């Protein structure tokens, strides 16, 4: 499948965009007029630069208000078209996107429109270019892909075809099924965009909220399936108008974009497996289709994976080993051992394995959280890495690389277990480990752990969820990464009110719930105005069958809890009619409480250590994540942080 991306998706100058698109590995690019006209680079130079980069200039766009015109206005449209076609010849772009008319003056007469498209086709033919007519969702009269295609067929000119854009089709509830009945050779261009479902007028929705495939709610596998059946063989291009993408790092956005297309291509190939196995093709790709076209879309596949079956380990990195390991001890963890060749410890309890390493030079995960750049701040502990148990670690690693992820290099000595990992967009190191057979994982032996059984009653049994902070620039990228690289599924997003802003929260989970990761949108300290603090802290939530006993033991061992305000407990009684003894116990142990239709939820939070805190949860059938309690936590953390910050300011 030939991949392309519109320059409008990306931040920066035209020149920066071309470089990023090429370095990400796209085959081609759509040039937006706006990007060219603000550039000092001549069209011929753009063409040469693209050729040097190995990029095809697939499309030039948009040509607006050029059709569906009153006859007295059409001559000027043809004049503009000639000028545009000349420019396209200099650029070397073969196809021009012609939008349906959005003006109140647009003409509704289909015969006239077909005739105008035919005459435009003649101008295009004179210049050796093609016109791809696209129905904008907010077009005055032409806003459906079927309608646009009927007009194209009626125009009956070899240089006039259809441009399909998934956003315009799906945002109006259009049915993509009709695509498979189109002659693929009459589809001149295809643009893909996903979007979250919203109640918003289609124009605002399209111009601000499009996202890459896999980052929203549209069924693009269905669109792709229809497209394959049509026999279309041209580029599949991304056209995403998105406020965050326009501000994010151009190279990262381009990599994210190509990841979305590769993932979609693979999903489509799987969805069409039985249909396509009937047709000849090379291994891992799809050959000629039912229409007998020799070059219908070829779909590449990725190494197959299933979602992780569990957590292998979490790795904390800290500048204060004492503080961090004390926290673990207070929660009932015991030192499992020291790594035989690295300065790393492992702490164990139940099925939970926490690797603790000391932060050294160049090991910071998020540079803006570096304590050395913030003299006077508390020592930092953070989630550095997450290990997952997967069926086939080598395949999962290969797949992640094919999806454009950067490998993590961990030095290992001969004979030591190989840790295969990649960087998540949020800076976490993601490791693929084998699903455990009998006994302890191989890597644990390097810590001198021979058996995980200890004879202690482990009150903590596993990891309930891990909450990872995402920067707003990379939130959608994070969702796609965890979807495509780990096969997690995205639940609906929620907004949690906090003192420094709404925190967007979205749970990524494996189908059986063994791995659950709420992603949280993290405003950074610098973006917080007067609020000087660390970014949104992350946390590991530990599962327990008796959270009250964990809390009691932790209290005896001196754990600093995040304290819960009395107002919260009063409200609990109002909400749930709890009896006084229960509430007294919750209060004594700093426990929070929630209930849903499935059951009850008891949990507590520790105070934040650096950029990290821990939560211990007891689910009695409950299926949520304590969203009602999160604002209480955010407010308590905010108060502590501003108190600590102002104390520091007094001291410095
Ligand atoms: O928002 C627009 O105007 C616009 C322009 C060109 C397109 O291809 C499109 O899908 C939307
Ligand atoms: Mg479009």
Automatic annotation (TrEMBL):
It catalyses: 3-dehydroshikimate = 3,4-dihydroxybenzoate + H2O. It is an enzyme of class 4 (lyase). GO terms for molecular function: 3-dehydroshikimate dehydratase activity; isomerase activity; metal ion binding. Residues 310-435, 462-607 form the VOC domain. It holds the Pfam family Glyoxalase. This is 3-dehydroshikimate dehydratase. One of its GO terms (biological process) is 3,4-dihydroxybenzoate biosynthetic process. It comes from the Bacteria. Gene3D superfamilies: 2,3-Dihydroxybiphenyl 1,2-Dioxygenase, domain 1, Divalent-metal-dependent TIM barrel enzymes. It comes from Kocuria soli. Pathway: Aromatic compound metabolism; 3,4-dihydroxybenzoate biosynthesis. Keywords: Carbohydrate metabolism, Isomerase, Lyase, Metal-binding, Pyruvate. Its EC number is 4.2.1.118. The lineage of its organism: Bacteria, Bacillati, Actinomycetota, Actinomycetes, Micrococcales. Mg(2+) binds at residues 465, 539, 615. Belongs to the bacterial two-domain DSD family.
């Amino acid at each position: 499948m030939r991949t392309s991306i519109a320059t409008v998706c990306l931040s920066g100058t035209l020149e920066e965009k071309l470089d990023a698109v090429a370095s990400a590995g796209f085959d081609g690019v759509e040039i937006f007029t706006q990007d060219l006209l603000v550039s000092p680079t001549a069209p011929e130079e753009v063409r040469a630069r693209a050729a040097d980069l190995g990029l095809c200039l697939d499309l030039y766009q948009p040509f607006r208000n050029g059709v569906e015109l009153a006859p007295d206005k059409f001559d000027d449209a043809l004049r503009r078209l000639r000028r545009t076609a000349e420019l396209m010849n200099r650029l070397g772009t073969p196809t021009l996107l012609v939008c349906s008319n959005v003006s109140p003056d647009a003409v509704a007469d289909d015969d006239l429109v077909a005739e105008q498209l035919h005459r435009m086709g003649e101008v295009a033919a004179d210049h050796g270019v093609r016109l791809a007519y696209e129905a904008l969702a907010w077009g005055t009269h032409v806003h459906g892909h079927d309608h646009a295609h009927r007009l194209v067929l009626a125009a009956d000119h070899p240089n006039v075809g259809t441009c399909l854009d998934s956003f315009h089709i799906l945002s109006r509830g259009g049915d993509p099924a009709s695509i498979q009945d189109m002659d693929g050779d009459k589809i001149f261009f295809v643009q893909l965009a996903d979007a979250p479902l919203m109640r918003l007028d289609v124009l605002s929705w399209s111009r601000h909220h499009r996202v890459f495939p896999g980052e929203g709610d549209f069924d693009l596998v269905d669109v792709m399936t229809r497209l394959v059946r049509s026999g279309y063989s041209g580029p599949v291009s991304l056209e995403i108008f998105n406020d965050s993408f326009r501000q994010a790092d151009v190279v990262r956005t381009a990599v994210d974009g190509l990841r979305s297309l590769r993932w979609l291509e693979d999903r489509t190939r799987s969805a069409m497996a039985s249909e396509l196995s009937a047709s000849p093709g090379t291994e891992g790709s799809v050959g000629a289709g039912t229409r007998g076209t020799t070059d219908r879309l070829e779909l590449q596949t990725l190494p197959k994976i299933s979602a992780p079956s569990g957590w292998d380990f979490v790795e904390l990195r800290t500048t204060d080993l004492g503080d961090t390991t004390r926290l673990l001890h207070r929660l009932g963890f015991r030192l499992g051992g020291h790594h035989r060749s690295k300065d790393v410890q492992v702490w164990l309890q139940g099925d939970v394995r926490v690797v603790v390493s000391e932060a050294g030079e160049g090991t910071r995960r998020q540079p803006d959280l570096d304590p050395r750049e913030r003299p006077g701040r508390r020592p930092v502990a953070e989630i550095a890495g997450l290990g997952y148990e997967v069926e086939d670690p080598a395949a999962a690693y290969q797949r992640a690389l094919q999806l454009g992820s950067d490998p993590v290099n961990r030095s290992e000595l001969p004979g030591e277990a190989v840790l295969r990992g990649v960087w998540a967009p949020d800076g976490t190191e993601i490791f693929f480990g084998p699903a455990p057979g009998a006994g302890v994982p191989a890597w644990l032996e390097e810590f001198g752990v021979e058996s995980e059984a200890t004879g202690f009653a482990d009150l903590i049994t596993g990891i309930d969820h891990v909450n990872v902070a995402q920067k707003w620039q990379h939130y959608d990228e994070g969702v796609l990464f965890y979807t495509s690289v780990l096969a997690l599924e995205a639940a609906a997003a929620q907004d949690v009110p906090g003192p420094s802003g709404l925190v967007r929260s979205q749970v990524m989970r494996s189908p059986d719930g063994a791995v659950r990761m709420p992603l949280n949108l993290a405003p950074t300290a610098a973006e917080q105005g007067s609020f000087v603090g660390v970014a949104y802290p992350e946390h590991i939530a530990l599962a327990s069958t008796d959270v009250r006993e964990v809390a009691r033991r932790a209290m005896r061992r001196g754990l600093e809890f995040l304290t819960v305000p009395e107002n919260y407990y009063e409200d609990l009684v109002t909400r749930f009619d709890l009896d006084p003894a229960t509430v007294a116990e919750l209060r004594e142990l700093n426990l929070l409480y929630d209930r849903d239709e499935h059951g009850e939820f008891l949990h507590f939070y520790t105070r934040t250590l650096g950029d990290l805190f821990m939560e211990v949860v007891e689910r009695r059938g409950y299926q949520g994540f304590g969203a009602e309690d999160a604002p209480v936590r955010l407010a308590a953390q905010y108060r502590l942080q501003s108190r600590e910050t102002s104390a520091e300011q007094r001291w410095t």
